[in-house]
Amino acid sequence: MKKPYQVVLVTALLLFGGMSWSLSAEIPALSPLQLLSGDDNFGPAAGNQIQPAIDKGGNFYLVVWEDNRSNLDNSPVEDQSSTDIYAARQDANGKLIDTIPIIISQAPGKQTDPHVVWNGENWLVIWKSQDLNPAGSYFSTHIDAARVSPGGIVIDNPPINVYTHEWVTWASLISAAAGSEWLVLTSDLTVTRGFRISANGTIINPNGILINEPVEDIAFAQDEFLGVWSGYRFTQYHDIVGQRYDAELQPIGVPFNIAANLHEDLNPRVAANGTDFLVGWEYYLSNWFSNPYVARVAHDGQVLDLDGMELADMGPGYGRGPRLAWDGTNWIAAWGELSVARINTAGVILDIGGVSIPGAKVEELTAGVNGGAQITYSDGPFIYWDPYDIYGVAISSSLAASPVECVSTGTPSQINSRLAGDANGWMLVYMSIIGGERRIMARPLLPDGTPFNSEPVELASGPNLSGPFIAGNGSLYIVTWGDRTANDSVYARRIMPDGTPVDASPVTVMRGIGGDVSALGDNFLVVSTFPLGNQHFVSVFGARVQGSDGAVLENQPFLLGVYFAANPRVTTFDDRWLVVWQRHPTHDDALAVVVGAFVNADGTSPGEFSINSYYNDVRYQYSPEVAVGPDTALLVWHELIGPNANWNIQATRLLSDGTLLDTNGFAVATAPLEQRYASVAWDGAEFVLAYEDQRAKTTFFDGRTDVFGALVDVSGAVLDSTGFSIANQATPEYLPSVGSKNGNTLFTASLFTSEAPYAAFRIGLRFLESSPVQCCTGLRGDIQLDGDNADIVDLNYIVNYIFRGGAKTPCAVEADLNSDGTSSNILDLNFLINYLFRGATPPGPC
User: Fold this and answer.
1) CA dist 327 → 90, 276, 366, 404, 500 (Å)
2) Is the pLDDT of residue 517 over 90?
3) Which letter, b or e, does each residue of 169-198 get, where b requires 16 or more Cβ atoms within 10 Å of its Cβ?
4) Which of 94, 449, 575, 735 has CA atoms 20 to 30 A from the CA of 131?
C-alpha cells in the first residue's frame, strides 16, 4: 500500500523540491473558449492581398500572394503577424478550388514577394522572410521555400531555408524550373546567387552559385537557361541584355544584345516553349509614355527580332511590360489593364494592338491548361482602408475571357467587439469585414453566451466605418459608430434586447470620429472627437440621445475638452456621466495624459479635470477605459514609463465627487514586453480587466499579441500580479473586451482562426466562472470532498488542477490549506506536501 504514496512523494519532490515560491493569488477559472457562430458567408478577404504569382501544374493552377488579413490595422510596423504568404488552387477552367486559402507561412514579421514554380510533380513556393541578423539586433532577409502538392498540402513545414542575406533588408528573388529541379536566384544588390533545389526539397548547392550578371528573369528550355536584364551596356540608355547558362548555371558564351533602342528598355521578362524563348519588356519613350515590346530568341542565342516588335502603341501611361507564356500553339502576351495578344512561332503578331479585356488587369500569368492563359492580379478601390484582393481571369486560345473571379477569399473578419448586458443576457456588437465592406453587427446572446438568433443583425454597412460601441438602459440598447465617408459623422441606432432595430435607419448624432455611449435613465450620452476649425485642433464633444424616441437632445454638440484630444470613453457614475480621454500637448507630440470631465444629466459639465500632467512629469498615457464599482471608478490605460520602456497597464481610482485616490496611478500589468489596450468591467466584487499582451514575443519584430486578464479589488490591490491567460494560441489574438452583469463576466476578443471554414479573425467568448462554493466543514484539506481529511488523493487533485488543466476545486475553503484567504495555489500545495510528508502542522479548521 505504500508504493503509490512513494511514487507521489517522488513526483512531488521533483516538482517542488528546492523551489521557492512567490505569493500569487489563484488563477481564476475560465470556461472553454468558444467561437461566435454565424456571419460566415464567403467573400473577398479582409485586409490587403497583393503581389500575386501563378503557375500551372497538371490540370490545376496555384496562385500565391502576400496577405495581411491578420494585420487589419495596416500598421507601418510589424503588427500581429504582419504580412503572410497564402495560396489557393484553381481548376482547369480557372474556378477557385480553395475558398479557404492554403497558409504557406504565417511566421512573425513580414513574409513578402512570393513566387511559384511547378516541376512536374509539386509546386515550389519561394518567398522572402524577415528574420534576425547574426547579432540578433537587426533584420536579415531569409529566402524560404515550401513544396505544395497538387492536393494543396504544404509539404515543408517548417519551410526550407534556401539562403539568408545577413544584415540585409532588401533582396530580389526570381525562380524557374529545370526538369524536376527548381532554380532560385536571389540578389542583395551586390551579389547574385543561384540555388538548385531537387524534387525532394534538398538544396543541391547550399552555398549558391555566384552569377556575375544582374539577372532580372530567367527561363529554362531543353537543356539551358536564358537570363535577361536591363542595363547600360550598348547605348546611353537601358538596354535589354541576355545571357545563356547551362543546367548548372555556368555561362554559355558572353552577354548579348536583345534590344538597344533610342530610349529606355526596362523590366524584361522571358518565357520558354521547350526549345526557344520569348523576351518581353517595356519600351519607355518619354513623358510617361511606354509601350510593350517582345522579341524571339532562338535556343542558340540568336535574336530573331533584334530591338523587338511593338505589340501596341498605348499612348500616355507607364508600367506596361508584358507578361508572357507559351500555350502550346502560340505565345501569349498580356499587359496593362488588360490587353492580350498572340504571337506565332514565325514572329507574326496575330493581334496587333492587342485585344482589350475590360474590367481586368495583369500582374502575372501562366499557360492555360487548355491553351490560352490564366491571369492573376491584385485590385481594389484604393479608399481609406486600402482593401486590395487577388483576382483571376482565364483567357482562351482565341483570347475570349472568362468572368473575373476573386481568388483571395475567406469568411468575414470580426473585430472591435463590445458588450452590454442585462438580466436576460448579453448584447454583443462588432465590426464584420468582408473585402472592402465594413458592417456594424449586433448579436443577442443568452446568459451562457449562446446566440439568441442564428445570424447577427446588420445595423450599418460601408467602406469607412469605425467602432462600434454599445450601452443599454434595461429596456433597449443604443449602438453607435463612426463613418469617415461623409465628413466624419457619428451615427446611432436603437435596438431591442432580441436585436430588432427600433430605428428604421441610423440616426445622425454629430460630427466625429467614432463615438462611445453610456446610459443614464432614458438618456444616452454619446462622446466623440472632431476638429475645431483647423484639422489638427481635435477636441472632445458630447450629445445626448433620448432612448424613448431616438431624438438628439442637443442642436449642437457641447464641448467637453479642448485639443489635442483622442480616444474618449464614457460611463455612468451615480447620477451623472464620467468622460475620460487622452490629451496631447500638440497634434504631433507623442506625449499624452489622461484627463476627464463629469457631465450632468441635463448635459451641462463643470469642466475637465486633470488626472496627470505632462508638464510636471513626462507621460505617455494612451487608450483610457473606465468602469464603475460601488462609489469608486477604476480608470485604466497603457503607458510608457521611463526611457526605452515597454507599454504596461496602469490604473487609478476615482470617487464620484472627482477625488483621485491614486494620484500617480498604480501598475496593473507589468509583465515582460508589451501590455496595452485594456478593457475593464465591474463584476460585483472586483474590477476585471482584459488586455493585449506580448510576453510571448519571440523577436523585436514579432507583433503577435495574446489576451490576458487581471483582477483589481476596490482598494486598488492587484489580485494577480502576473495576470492570467484568456487566449494564447500561436496566431494573433487582439482587441479584447470584457462585460459583467449580475456577477456574470464575459470576455471577448478577435482571434485569428486559420482553419476551415474561416481564415479570418473571429470573435472568441470565454466566461470568468464563479468562485468555488464555500462548503468546508471540520478541518480544511478535503479538496475532493470525499469525506476524508487531507490525504494523497487531495494532493493529486490539486496538482492536476494547477499544472495539468484538471477540474477546478469544488470548495474554495477546503483548498485554502494555509488559511490565507486564497485557495488552490502553490502556497496551499506546499502546505499540503509539508503536512503529508514532512510532519508539518495539519490544516486548520474552517
Assistant:
1) 17, 13, 9, 20, 56
2) yes
3) eebebbbbbbeebbbbbbbbeeebbbbbbe
4) 735
* Cα gap 655→660, rounded to integer Å: 7
The share of the chain scoring above pLDDT 90, in percent, equals 65
CB 523 within 8 A of CB 599: no
The CA distance from 813 to 84, in Å, is: 49
Distance of alpha carbon 127 from alpha carbon 85, whole angstroms: 8
Give which of 582, 598, 479 is closest to 539, Cα–Cα. Answer: 582
**Gyration radius of the chain over CA positions:** 32
343 in Cβ contact with 293 (< 8 Å): no
**Residue 183 grid cell:** 532554380
- pLDDT single digits (tens) 612-656: 766 566 788 999 999 999 899 999 999 987 555 789 999 999 999
The residue type of 723 is G
Query: What's the rounded Cα separation, in Å, for the pair 256 and 226?
Result: 11
pLDDT digits (tens, 9 = 90+) for 154-182: 999 999 999 988 766 566 777 888 889 99
Residue 424: what residue type? N
Query: If residue 522 lies in a helix (H) or strand (E), which one and from where to where?
Result: none
Alpha-carbon separation of residue 621 from 562, 624, 797, 840 (angstroms)? 17, 8, 44, 49
pLDDT band at 700 (very low <50, low <70, confident <90, very high): confident
CB atoms within 10 A of CB 738: 28
**Contact, 810 vs 772, CB < 8 A?**
yes
Would you tell me the crossing angle of helices 826-838 and 792-803 to the nearest 10 degrees? 150
Between the CA of residue 220 and those of 132, 532, 570, what are the distances in Å? 34, 64, 65
Mean pLDDT (whole number) for 731-740? 94
State phi, psi for 360 to the nearest 5 degrees.
-140, 165
The C-alpha atoms of residue 207 and residue 223 are separated, in whole angstroms, by 23
- Between CA 686 and CA 693, with CA 688 as vertex, the angle to 5 degrees is 145
CB 495, CB 468: distance < 8 Å: no
Q: Is omega for the bond preceding 158 within 30 degrees of 0, making it cis?
A: yes
Question: Mean pLDDT, to the nearest integer, of 788-811?
Answer: 76
Q: How many CB atoms lie within 10 A of CB 246?
A: 12
- Find, among 196, 190, 136, the residue nearest to 163 by Cα: 196
Residue 841: DSSP 8-state: P
Cell 507601418 found at: 76
- As a whole number of angstroms, the distance between CA 497 and CA 444 comes to 7
Residue type, 743: G
Distance CA 183, CA 250 (A): 13
For cell 510589424, the residue is 78
| Contact present, 125 and 173 (Cβ < 8 Å) | no
Phi and psi, residue 195, nearest 5°: -125, 125
For residues 82 and 78, give the distance between their C-alpha atoms in angstroms, rounded to a whole number: 5
Cell of 331: 505565345
- Using the 8-state DSSP alphabet, how is residue 660 labeled? B
Residue (of 653, 700, 652, 651) closest to 672 by Cα position: 700
DSSP 703: B
- What SS3 class is residue 9? helix
Q: In terms of residues, how long is the chain?
A: 846
What's the DSSP call for residue 606? -
pLDDT tens string 322-352: 999 999 999 999 998 899 999 999 999 999 9
Classified as helix, coil or strand, 279 is strand
